[in-house]
Design goal:
The complex is a heterodimer of chains A (about 220) and B (about 160). Chain A is α+β, with helices and mostly antiparallel strands and about 220 residues long. Chain A is about 25% helix and about 30% strand. The radius of gyration of chain A is 25 Å and the shape is flat. The C terminus of chain B is likely disordered. Chain B has one domain: CheA-289, Domain 4 (OB fold (Dihydrolipoamide Acetyltransferase, E2P)), CATH 2.40.50. The radius of gyration of chain B is 15 Å and the shape is globular. Classes of the chains: A alpha+beta (about 220), B mainly beta (about 160).
Chain lengths: ~220, ~160
C-alpha cells in the first residue's frame, strides 16, 4: 500500500526503481499526473493542527503592507570586490566559465578575447578593467572561485560576455530607495554608477548601461 | 471567466471569482448568541469585522468539517451607501479555480424558492456543478446590512477606501 501511495518516489521521477511507471511516457513528469495531484490534495484533508486557527487569526488581523509600485528588476553580480547591478532586460543568460581565446597583437586590457557560446564566437570583455576595479586579495579569491561564472548580455543587438565572481540573481529595486552616488568617490567607477542601492548589508552600484556599453564599444575598436 | 471550485460534503459547487477578494485559511471565530445556525461567527480581517457563513449548514444542514482544506472565501459587496462590505463564506476543499467560458453556464429553468442563490449549472468533466449566485446569496441573510443587489462589482478604489 505504501508503495502505491508514493509511486513518484519509486517508479516515478524521484525514484530509480525498474520498471518505470508506464504513465511517465504520457505525462513526462509526475507533477502532471493525476495521482500525484490527488496525493497532494489529500494532504489538505487532514484535521487542523492545534493552534492553527489562532495563528491564522493573528496573521489575518494584520493590515496588509502595500508593496511598492514601480519597482524594476536588476541582476546583481560581483566583479572583484564590488557588487554591481545591471537592468535585467539586458541579460540573455549566465554560463559556466569557459576558456577565453586571446587575440594576438591585442593588449590584454578591456578586451579579454573571444569565447565560444553555443558554438558562436562572442567578444569577452573585462568589466573590472573598464570600470577600474582593483583585484581582490588572494585569500578571498580562492574561497570564492567556485562561484565564477560568465554573463551574456545583449544591448542593441551586440552581444557581450564578461566573467564575474559571483551572481546573486534578479532583484527588484524601487527608484525611491536609490541613494545618491557620493561625489567624493574617486576613480572612474563612479562615472559608470548611475545609482546606489542597499541590498542586505551591501551597497550595490547600478551601472549606467548606456554609458557602459558605449565605452565598451569604444575601447575595443 | 475564472470560477472557484469547492465542496460541501460530497457535492461540488462553484462560484464566480470576480467578487472573491481572498481565500483565507480557517481562523478562530467569535460566536454570536442567538444567531442563525449557519452563522459561524465573526473575525477580524485586517482590521475589519467580517461575518462568516457556514455554507454547508446553509445548504445541507450540517457544519463544515474542520480540515486544512476547509477555508473561508472572502467576498466583496457594496452596501447601499456605497461603502464596501466583506462577507466570509466557509466551504470545504477550496483548492481549485478553473477557467470557464460564459456559455458554459446552463440554466435548467428551475428556481427553488428557499434557495434562490442556487442558480445555473456548469459542466466540468461531464459532471454537473451547481453555481452559487453571490448576488442572490446576500438577500438570504436578513441580519446583514442592506447590500446593493444587481451586478455591481466593487471597483478597486472602494475596496481600498
Amino acid at each position: 500500500m505504501q508503495k502505491e501511495e508514493s509511486c513518484w518516489k519509486q517508479i516515478g521521477v524521484w525514484g530509480k526503481e525498474e520498471p518505470r511507471c508506464p504513465k511517465l511516457k504520457e505525462v513526462i513528469h509526475c507533477r502532471n499526473c493525476d495521482l500525484f495531484t490527488q496525493a497532494g490534495r489529500n494532504l489538505l484533508e487532514r484535521d487542523l493542527p492545534a493552534k492553527y486557527k489562532n495563528e491564522w487569526a493573528q496573521v489575518l488581523l494584520e493590515k496588509k503592507g502595500e508593496d511598492l509600485i514601480g519597482t524594476f528588476p536588476v541582476v546583481t553580480f560581483r566583479v572583484e570586490g564590488e557588487w554591481l547591478a545591471l537592468p535585467a532586460r539586458l541579460f540573455s543568460e549566465v554560463i559556466d566559465k569557459v576558456s577565453i581565446h586571446s587575440l594576438p597583437h591585442r593588449k590584454k586590457d578591456v578586451l579579454n578575447g573571444l569565447v565560444n557560446v553555443h558554438g558562436e564566437m562572442q567578444i569577452c570583455v573585462s568589466l573590472e578593467h573598464l570600470i577600474g576595479l582593483e583585484e581582490e586579495a588572494e585569500d578571498t579569491k580562492k574561497k570564492q572561485r567556485l562561484h565564477d561564472r560568465m554573463m551574456v548580455v545583449s544591448k542593441d543587438g551586440d552581444i557581450w560576455v564578461f566573467p564575474v565572481k559571483e551572481i546573486h540573481g534578479i532583484h527588484h529595486v524601487h527608484p525611491d530607495l536609490f541613494q545618491n552616488v557620493p561625489v567624493t568617490v574617486a576613480k572612474s567607477k563612479s562615472a559608470f554608477t548611475k545609482e546606489i542601492f542597499k541590498w542586505k548589508d551591501k551597497h550595490v552600484a547600478l551601472l549606467d548601461d548606456e554609458l557602459l556599453f558605449y565605452s565598451l564599444k569604444r575601447s575595443i575598436q | 471567466m475564472l470560477v472557484l471550485l469547492f465542496y460541501l460534503g460530497d457535492v461540488m459547487y462553484t462560484m464566480k471569482c470576480e467578487r472573491v477578494r481572498e481565500v483565507a485559511p480557517l481562523v478562530k471565530l467569535k460566536e454570536i448568541p442567538h444567531a442563525p445556525d449557519y452563522f459561524a461567527g465573526l473575525f477580524n480581517y485586517r482590521g475589519v469585522i467580517v461575518p462568516v457563513i457556514d455554507l454547508r449548514i446553509l445548504i445541507q444542514g450540517r457544519p463544515c468539517e474542520m480540515r486544512l482544506s476547509t477555508r473561508i472565501i472572502l467576498v466583496d459587496y457594496v452596501k447601499d451607501d456605497n461603502t464596501p462590505y466583506i462577507l466570509g463564506l466557509m466551504a470545504e476543499r477550496v483548492t481549485e479555480a478553473v477557467k470557464k467560458s460564459e456559455d458554459a453556464f446552463v440554466s435548467p429553468g428551475l428556481s427553488m424558492q428557499d434557495a434562490p442563490y442556487l442558480g445555473d449549472f456548469v459542466m466540468e468533466n461531464k459532471e454537473i456543478i451547481q453555481y452559487i449566485d453571490l448576488d442572490l446569496l446576500q438577500n438570504s441573510f436578513k441580519f446583514l446590512p442592506m447590500l446593493e443587489g444587481g451586478n455591481n462589482v466593487p471597483d478597486d478604489d472602494s475596496v481600498l477606501a
